[in-house]
Amino acid sequence: MFDLSLKLDDLSQQGLYRSRCIIDSPQGVNLNCNGKEIVNFCSNDYLGLANHPAVIEAFKKGAERYGVGSGSAHLICGHSSAHYALEEELASFTGRDRALLFSTGYMANIGTISALTGRGDTVLEDRLNHASLLDGGLSSGALFKRYAHADTAHLDRLLAKAEGNKLIVTDGVFSMDGDTAPLIGLSDLAKRHDAWLMVDDAHGFGVLGEHGGGLLEQTGLTQGDVQALVGTLGKAFGTFGAFAAGSGELIETLINTARTYIYTTALPPAMAEATRASLRILQTEHWRREKLKSLVERFRAGAAQLALPLLPSSSPIQPVLAGESGIALKVSRFLFDNGFLVSAIRPPTVPANAARLRVTFSALHEETQVDQLLDMLAKALK
Questions:
Q1: Of 1, 63, 266, 379, which sits 20 to 30 A from 169 (CA to CA)?
Q2: Do both 305 and 359 map to the same domain?
Q3: Are residues 273 and 154 in the same domain?
């Protein structure tokens, strides 16, 4: 008979027990969390679009036209003209031939990796990849290898021994450390070893690049350099869902063989319409990226003055190392009691003894809020 209480007690004693915060307000910089008014510094809504009036209006109009649910999977009767239009716009935005919508980023990653590789092939992943990428590699049936974080020399040695079709998989911006993958070096290695490169740029889209095209726009890499590109819509886009982009053959392969695409209900068409609105804002309102960059620079400069233990990151993800899970939890609770929501990130999400406060920024934060958070972090860590 299962005794789940022992497992839960063990998690609690290790400082790894997790609980949910109940939000009773729109997503944004200011939240009502568990009945408390609080400043939010842990959201992935980097550009502040989750509650944008134009995005909300597009969602409402989409619901009036298409209803709320999509009714079925894309391959049955769930693929609407809103889905088609968004896919075309995402393909243009990313500079790829075509794009394909998935219901979640998790499903996009697992579906893409499993559709491209199988028994006799090799999947090679960065050790700090997101869980969805790691699970995709493990579930593909291919030989699964992990290379040291951002270590192209280690990857080169693994590729030399790899068999079958070889797929290199990496995050663009790493979600817990905030640093970026060495994409140019990875692309060069892929070409040298006749491999494909897949990048999940979930935390880069909207934030990096002159027009918000992500790390690939910033590095100038094309479809020929990165054959499979995945992005999520619930972060800088402020909506929900995900997409894969690449050649026409890649997309047709995913439509016909990616189980997480074939066997699930399509994203609501109204959500697709909302995302089309956020995509337009993302591409035209450059001030959001500029404001975000200035806030990150202000935070890092203040953290350096206060000797806060930051990881090297220029993205809106700014991890403050705490080490032990218990310490990270105490700091997070102290911040909450003093009006700031900052999540404590603990194993297995991060390595043992690498627990941290994952501070994230939105274009809607004010400089005074950043300064107040710095003061409170310094008090908490002391």
A1: 266
A2: yes
A3: yes
The catalytic residue among 235, 313, 332, 343 is 235
Each residue's pLDDT tens digit, 251-270: 999 999 999 999 999 999 99
User: Which residue among the candidates 43, 70, 132, 175 is catalytic per the annotation?
Assistant: 175
Helix/strand/coil (H/E/C) assignment for every residue in the chain: CCCHHHHHHHHHHCCCCCCCCCECCCCCCEEEECCEEEEECCCCCCCCCCCCHHHHHHHHHHHHHHCCCCCCCHHHHHCCHHHHHHHHHHHHHHCCCEEEEECCHHHHHHHHHHHHCCCCCEEEEECCCCHHHHHHHHHCCCEEEEECCCCHHHHHHHHHHCCCCEEEEEECECCCCCCECCHHHHHHHHHHCCCEEEEECCCCCCCCCCCCCCHHHHHCCCCCCCCEEEEECCCCCCCCCEEEEECHHHHHHHHHHCHHHHCCCCCCHHHHHHHHHHHHHHHHCCHHHHHHHHHHHHHHHHHHHCCCCECCCCCCEEEEEEECHHHHHHHHHHHHHCCEECEEECCCCCCCCCEEEEEECCCCCCHHHHHHHHHHHHHHHC
204 in the same domain as 142: yes
Three-class secondary structure of residue 94 per DSSP: helix
Which of the four pLDDT bands, split at 50, 70 and 90, describes residue 69?
A: very high
pTM: 0.95
On whether both 38 and 60 belong to a single domain, the answer is no
Quote the DSSP letter at residue 318.
E
Tell which residue, 319, 343, 326, has the closest CA to residue 33: 343
In angstroms, rounded to a whole number, what is the distance separating the alpha carbons of residues 153 and 188?
Answer: 12
| Residue 80 falls in the annotated catalytic set | no
Residue-wise pLDDT tens digits, 308-357: 999 999 999 999 999 999 999 999 999 999 999 999 999 999 988 999 99
How confident is the model at residue 337, as a pLDDT? 95
Q: Which of 261, 284, 307 is the last residue of a domain?
A: 284
330 is catalytic: no
Residue 79 is a catalytic residue: no
CB of 176 within 8 A of CB of 350? yes
Q: What is the CATH number of the domain that holds 171?
A: 3.40.640.10
- 1 pLDDT exceeds 80? no
Is 3 within a domain?
Answer: no
